[in-house]
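Hi R.,

Here are the chain sequences for the assembly we discussed:
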Amino acid sequence: MSEPSCSVAHRLLLRCATGAQVREAHASLMVTGELVSSPVAAAVFLHNTLIRAYARTGGAAHLEAILVYRHLLRSALPPDTHTFPFLLKASAAALPGSAIAAAQGGAAHAQIVRLGFSGQLHATNALIHFYSLAGDLPAARRLLETSATTDVVSFNTLITGYCRSGNSAAARKLFDEMPQRNGISWTAMISGHVHCGEEREALSLFSAMQSSGVPPMAATLVSVLSACAQLGALEQGRWVHRHLRVSGGGAATINVFLGTALIDMYAKCGEVDAAVAVFEAMPERNLLSWTTLIGGLAVHGRGTAALRLFEQMETSGVAPDDVAFVAALSACSHAGLLDDGRRIFAAMRRRYGVEPKLEHYGCLVDLLARGGRLTEAMAAVEEMPVSPDGRIWSALMAGCRFHGDAKLAERVAERLVALEPDNGGVYVLLANVYGAAGRHGEAVRVRGAMRRRCLGKAPGWSSVEVGGEVHQFTAGGGSHPAAAAARAKWAAVERRLREEEGYVPGREEVLVEVEEEEKDAAVGGHSEKIAMGFAMLRSGEGERMRIMKNLRVCGDCHRATKLVSKVFRREIVVRDRTRFHIFRDGRCSCGDYW
DNA sequence: TTAGGGTTAG
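And here is the predicted structure of the full complex:
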């Protein structure tokens, strides 16, 4: 007996990987007339399969899935229980910016009720999914609470919905209360914490998952690695890598997601060579894997290597997207590659049709401004099609400060203050510009204005990983139990730097109105130095010290860290807000350009 | 050989 033609078409459609392929298969079904002239069950089946195929491929194809559904209705064919999950999935995926998709979801809900499908588990779950993505979490919650049948998937879907909308607390409550959990429940909650910037919660939930005996899935480890990357938790990240190597299948278990997550983790933990090794061992790479490594090399200041990789990616037939261009441009900006940066920026639109966004302008302005091309940088800002935000002006401002252009800095500061009047950091920047230009009276005036408005700068902190544990310090040491010991250790270290290298704590970074005597103490209290003191107290002699901070390294800390690496023969890895500094033998990998 | 949930870069 020969196979029914709808089965052949079904298999064909599910093999389609792109919207264009689905469109072609769709067209051939229209030509043969199979879509409408088959027996009713087969015709509905084919419509469902088409909707599913469009839903899978993404982009504009999501909307075409909706068109197929409307074609089904126009052909007077009855949607069945299989139709709605596919339709809702496509509608949910098409949601951003599509009023049609939003309306279709609501209409499908009404139709489900009318046809008596509302008791069906799959319809319920698809609706929860749709409302979650539509941002209507109360509607999704109502479905979970009032539906006759729900299962673990219903809960998992709502947990994900809460997390995507930023409400991890509601998600966690649901997770804690749900009657049973599977691996996906744990994974959804762990990745949800990461999504909401709660990496520590994510890691502690992962250890709870392990205690509960549920084995981690690949997707779980991807999220765990992402948490490690954000936290700079190298030891835990390495543990995941080892775990992958020993548990079943060896390197083959490292899929493209895990490989990319490992690259990111190593790069963000200061081990860029390990990131390169993972990349080279990957059997399969995609745009994200390339981009991650390019960005990793960029933050390590390896601009030339990053650009070489970018070219290799192009030659291998992978077209860069907007994110890849951010990575390439930031590589130029961290390494001061002025001409390459200009060239790549121009090629974005011309060769690849990628419209430059704020981030791209940010890199360009940063590059030009720090390269001393302040006029060109200002011109770039003025010709931007989108209005510049605080980050763009800040990049320009940093350039002004670096090159001592107090006049332009004032103009830029006016724009910045207008944009972000409550951001104390802006005033600090301006005061520093005046300080660098020797106009101390003006600097004091700006500080005064800042105080009158009761504005503060975001408090700085530094953290250091010792023995797999992360310790955090604010300026002066903060509330860490070992703050006093760390401060004392730093004082001893600094004495040796003075004796052997003639180190004098720099003054340009200090609040100008602070008395002379207190200046050294204020600089000595920078969180980075306390963290370094703590690391020297607690870590082994030859060990690399790993410090992470939320602000940029200041000039004085940079100088002091270089000297520590020389005098104490220690390698020090510092991850600051924008890049890595690797200190060795009195030198820094940034070449003093940051 | 027809359904639903989780996963990486900036």
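Residues 145 and 306 of chain A are 51 Å apart (CA to CA). DSSP finds 31 helices and six strands in chain A.

Let me know if anything looks off.

Best,
T.
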